[in-house]
Write a structure and sequence with these properties.
The chain is of the alpha/beta class and 345 residues long. Helices cover 41% and strands 17% of the residues. The chain has two domains: 229 residues, NAD(P)-binding Rossmann-like Domain (Rossmann fold); 80 residues, UDP-galactose 4-epimerase, domain 1 (Alpha-Beta Complex), CATH 3.90.25.10. Bound molecules: NADP nicotinamide-adenine-dinucleotide phosphate and ligand F7E. Ligand F7E binds next to helix 5 and helix 8.
């Protein structure tokens, strides 16, 4: 019998990589997409349109994480063995602009799925997409499963709720519910307004004379960046472990946004030099033209300055470790963008 999985957030970066992984492992994959006025399936179109065998194993449904009835009906109809809740308003800066919606989707969305699991079939395994943003104003360094949370945005506060409601339902109803606490992970499929994608895309265009300038916010924030393809493997492993637990998934390496820019520039053979401080800091090209400027509009009301994880627990018990380093990640993202440019996009 093939295992049945249900992915909320199937159209996102992780949803796309996870779908491919689960299909490869022989699962039947059901994905929930929300209705939008423009197409939102570009990250999964290649799988959905591929050979008929895949089509049969990959089924899409309309639904929304803010709509409890649709969640209950889908779980009741599909009868999944495993549910991956990747659906979220996932942009930290945007969460300050739409805090109520972010909380509804990111916090209560988890509760709605957990309630349905308890009512329909408590044997369904549940994965909650937790985030290193929950550590926010960090209480220890590096961060692991024992580090207390100190969220710094409506997004992170909502994810802390989702984390604890997952723990609470596990303890109250003995369900197999797990939290993955994933540090930043990127890929060519990353949303365009996240900083890595924004940088790689812009510098590729600048190199090819298709764009003049890139505007950024706080380039001194430090992150632990991994590759999404590695991280979806961890999600699957978390649900195959002998008991339900919470897991930190990260690379254990840290770079600032500015270091990330310098690495991308180097790979593109784009010589840049920095001058000035604070909002006046700028990067110039060889011809002394300004190519990067800092804009206060991109700063957040509260920043998360310094994230670096420790995933020793996952290494030891899940036998998981990242296979792709930052150089691979950047090259992968650059190759994708250069190909897009070649195709006139
Ligand atoms: P993403 O690319 O933004 O994908 C989010 C997915 O959620 C998309 O499919 C989106 O649909 C869907 N979604 C948003 N609101 C929804 C709603 N109301 N109902 C149903 N679906 C909804 O995010 P990602 O990078 O793949 O991340 C996956 C999950 O991991 C998210 O929960 C994120 O918060 C969390 N996370 C991400 C990272 C990271 O570094 N990537 C790290 C830690 C945790 P549309 O395509 O229609 O927008
Ligand atoms: O910002 C700084 C910004 O938006 C990274 C989400 O997937 O990972 C992601 O959240 C850093 C921040 O990711 C710009 O201030 C500077 O310090 O790429 P980001 P994030 O906020 O870390 C976590 C783990 C998640 O869970 C989230 O869902 O870069 N930064 N200038 C900028 N950031 C953006 N977006 N745009 C800029 O222009």
């Amino acid at each position: 019998m093939k295992k049945i999985s249900l992915i909320f957030g199937v159209t996102g970066q992780d949803g796309s990589y996870l779908t491919k992984l689960l299909l490869k492992k022989g699962y039947i994959v059901h994905g929930v997409k929300r209705r939008s006025s423009s197409l939102n399936t570009h990250r999964i179109d290649d799988i959905y349109q591929e050979p008929f065998t895949h089509k049969k194993n990959f089924i899409l449904h309309y639904g929304d994480i803010t709509d409890g009835t649709s969640i209950f009906d889908l779980i009741n109809k599909i009868k999944p063995d495993e549910i991956y809740n990747l659906a979220a308003q996932s942009h930290v800066a945007v969460s300050f602009k739409i805090p109520e919606y972010t909380s509804n989707a990111d916090a209560l969305g988890a509760l709605r799925i957990l309630e349905s699991i308890v009512k329909i079939n408590p044997k369904i395994k549940y994965y909650q997409a937790g985030s290193s943003e929950m550590y926010g104003k960090i209480q220890s360094f590096p961060q692991n499963e024992k580090t207390p949370f100190y969220p710094r945005s409506p997004y992170a506060v909502s994810k802390v709720y989702a984390h604890w409601i997952t723990v609470n339902y596990r303890e109250s109803y003995k369900i197999f519910a797990c939290n993955g606490i994933l540090f930043n992970h990127e890929s060519p499929l990353r949303g365009e307004t996240f900083v890595t994608k924004k940088i790689v895309k812009a510098l590729c265009k600048i190199k090819n004379k298709k764009q003049k300038k890139l505007y950024l916010g706080n380039i001194y924030a430090k992150r632990d960046w991994g590759h999404a393809q590695d991280y979806v493997e961890a999600m699957w492993k978390i649900l195959q472990y002998k008991k339900p637990e919470d897991w930190v998934i990260c690379t254990g390496k840290q770079y600032s946004v500015k270091q990330f820019i310098n690495l991308v520039s180097k790979k593109l053979n784009l010589k840049i030099f920095w001058r000035g401080k604070g909002l006046h800091e700028k990067a110039y090209n060889e011809k002394k033209q300004k190519i990067i400027e800092i804009k206060k509009e991109y700063f957040r009301p509260a920043e998360v300055d310094n994230l670096k994880g420790n995933s020793n627990k996952a290494k030891k018990y899940l036998k998981w470790k990242p296979k792709k380093d930052i150089n691979y990640l950047i090259q992968d993202m650059i190759n994708y963008e250069l190909n897009e440019l070649k195709n006139g996009k």
